[in-house]
Design a protein that fits this description.
By secondary structure, the chain is an alpha+beta fold. It is built from 13 helices and 32 strands.
Length: 639
């Protein structure tokens, strides 16, 4: 930001000299000199001033006069730099510029902005550091440019605005004056550029943090500190004082040799619970609350059957690392995983003799990606056919329960041709989880779903032939393992089966591909992780029941049963009628016999009476016949 000052009377008098000073500065470099003074406070704030000195007798005329020159300066003044005007002293004229800054980072950014404004940023660097750590204290600054280079923008601006001719500015700011810097109360005098190294450094030249995941959420953590110089005297005292605060609770501090025979070192080792525990351990061991550590578990977005661990964070080594020498300024993180894991993405990984893999990062902000293929050990595909409009394909995947539990929802969605995982049935037995999903419909619908989900599959169901109750169809199914989730790396078996659906049979003499195994035709494509060389195709003639024919047969059977029942009922009715007729006949015969016997007895009685009384019986016969109960007895009475 440009700061504007209210002009005083003396400053108003000097403004007329401003343009002439700058013109002389640009055209007469043998008499121009740029001094710079840098003041840095303990908190990193400070001010850098630039003073340009010109002999008064070497001022020349400017195109457009002083107003044009001043306007050009203000128009091209880079952000962050202030122009404080001009003043005179004896036979020299002085122009001053000020660059205030709030922190080390702010200073580096503003000086870099001056370089960019002067088109000099490429190939030049600005580095300032203030160290106040248990193992190192002091101030350092290194700039690869001189102060006159930082003002090339001014020359270019005057030329662009026509205030200065090109020839007058070709040698501008070739003169570098005095250079002075101070940090706190310490004052430094340097050469043409600012180069200061005033750091008492007892830091370690090599720091390696090793994190080893254990069971559940437990981690083994080791931090190794290597020093290229003997740890004795003042260095030894500083190191001992540091480790009085740098050993986490429960951890152990030991002396260890460094990577080379000349190195000496220390090791802090212990255990931590979970990523948060590792973070706390490293913060204590490195003496920095800026250190971060996190582990995220999941699956790859490109391949859901690939398990991932993504390790991210920051290793802040400013407290413990040396600021000079090899390996200075950064720690190395090593994340060790057991056999089966590998480095993913741009992560560097190295396999060890025991099969483990070590992921390594030397960046302060690290991101390590470890990958492991989830082991779908076995898969079985069972195709069942009842007809062209009734087909089902059942997929069963088996994998270790521990792998399934890493991402259950993702894995269910992965094996589900519909993609949502809602229709997947899950069962667990003996640490093995089985995922089962079924696709059904007519043969066209099933083929469409399989090809969309697997990339390629072919299911063929022929037209029916044969007897009207049972029908025969030629059926074939081709389902390669490569299209299945994890099918390219199965460690167990992969089998394709064909069976009739809802009853039926396999014609053993009409199996084209596969072998009969009970009620199915099957091919074993993979056994114990090894391809058998057998095509993933099953083909055979399948006999199935014709449901329309079966229904017709049922109707006919019911009709037959109805006729039998009706005949039986009719026969019983006739039999009962004849039985009733026979009963009536028997009763009539019996009644006739009884009547005949009664009549004979009556006749005998009459003859006896007639013999006994003679005429008396005859006299009374007419009157007695009226009241005789046997008189008028008919066959109807007998019946």
């Amino acid at each position: 930001m440009v700061r504007h000052h209210a002009p005083s009377r003396s400053r108003q008098l000097s403004r007329g000299l401003t343009a002439l000073i700058l013109a002389a500065l640009l055209a007469l470099t043998s008499c121009a000199q740029v001094d710079t003074s840098l003041t840095v406070e303990q908190d990193g704030s400070g001010t850098r001033t630039f003073t340009v000195h010109i002999d008064q007798d070497r001022l020349g005329d400017l195109n457009g006069g002083q107003s044009a020159a001043e306007q050009s300066i203000r128009d091209h003044l880079p952000e962050g730099l202030t122009f404080d005007g001009v003043s005179t002293e004896e036979d020299r004229i002085r122009a001053e510029f000020t660059l205030p800054f709030d922190s080390v980072e702010d200073y580096e950014e503003k000086v870099t902005a001056l370089l960019e404004a002067s088109d000099r940023a490429q190939g030049n660097s600005i580095e300032m550091s203030i160290t106040d750590a248990p193992l190192s204290q002091g101030f350092s600054l290194e700039e690869s440019v001189t102060s006159d280079v930082l003002f090339a923008w001014l020359v270019e601006g005057l030329i662009v605005d026509g205030v200065l001719a090109d020839d007058d500015g070709t040698q501008a700011f070739a003169g570098q004056g005095e250079v002075e810097a101070s940090f706190g109360e310490q004052i430094y005098e340097t050469g043409r550029s600012l180069r200061i190294d005033d750091v008492t450094d007892h830091g370690f030249h090599e720091v390696i943090a090793t994190v080893i995941p254990g069971d559940a959420e437990s981690y083994r953590v080791e931090v190794d500190y290597g020093s290229a110089e003997p740890i004795s005297g003042a260095r030894g005292q500083a190191v001992d004082a540091f480790f009085e605060q740098a050993v986490p609770e429960g951890a152990v501090l030991t002396e260890e040799p460094g990577r080379t025979s000349q190195e000496r070192g220390r090791r802090v080792s212990g255990t931590a619970e979970g990523p948060d525990g590792v973070q706390d351990f490293l913060r204590t061991a490195l003496g920095s609350e800026q250190t971060r550590f996190a582990v995220e578990h999941g699956t790859s977005s490109e391949d859901p059957t690939t398990q991932q661990q993504v390790v991210t964070g920051t290793l802040d080594c400013t407290t413990v690392c040396s600021s000079s020498g090899y390996g200075s300024g950064a720690a190395e993180l090593r994340f060790v995983l057991p056999e089966g894991w590998d480095a993913g993405g741009a992560t560097y990984g190295q396999a060890e003799d025991d099969g483990s893999v070590v992921l390594t990062s030397s960046e302060e902000d690290f991101r390590l990606v470890a990958e492991r293929r989830i082991g779908i050990t076995d898969a079985t595909v069972r195709v069942e056919v009842a007809g062209r409009d009734d087909v089902s394909v059942e997929f069963t995947y088996r994998l270790p329960t521990a792998d399934y539990e890493t991402a259950p929802e993702t894995l269910r969605a992965t094996v589900d041709p519909q993609g949502d995982g809602e229709s997947v049935q899950v069962s667990t037995e003996d640490d093995v989880t089985a995922l089962t999903v079924t696709v059904d419909g007519d043969v066209s619908e099933v083929n469409s779903q399989l090809n969309a989900a697997l990339g390629y599959a072919d299911l063929h169901v022929g037209e029916p032939t044969g007897f009207w109750i049972t029908q025969q169809r030629e059926v074939s199914a081709t389902i390669p393992p490569e299209g299945l989730p994890g099918g390219d790396r199965m460690t167990g078996d992969y089998r394709v089966e064909l069976a009739p659906k809802g009853g039926g049979s396999i014609d053993e003499d009409a199996v084209l591909q596969g072998s009969v195994d009970g009620d199915v035709v099957a091919v074993d494509v993979i056994r114990e992780g090894q391809a058998t060389g057998v095509s993933p195709t099953v083909s055979a003639t399948v006999s199935t029941i014709s449901w329309p024919g079966l229904i017709l047969l049922g109707v006919l059977i019911l009709l037959g049963i109805g006729l039998i029942v009706a005949a039986y009922l009719f026969r019983n009715r006739i039999a009962r009628a004849w039985a009733r007729r026979d009963a009536v006949t028997s009763r009539v015969a019996a009644a006739g016999a009884t009547a005949a016997a009664g009549a004979g007895a009556a006749a005998a009685s009459v003859r006896s009476a007639s013999a006994g009384v003679g005429s008396t019986a005859a006299a009374h016969s007419t009157s007695d016949s009226t009241s005789d109960p046997d008189r008028g007895f008919t066959e109807a009475d007998l019946i």
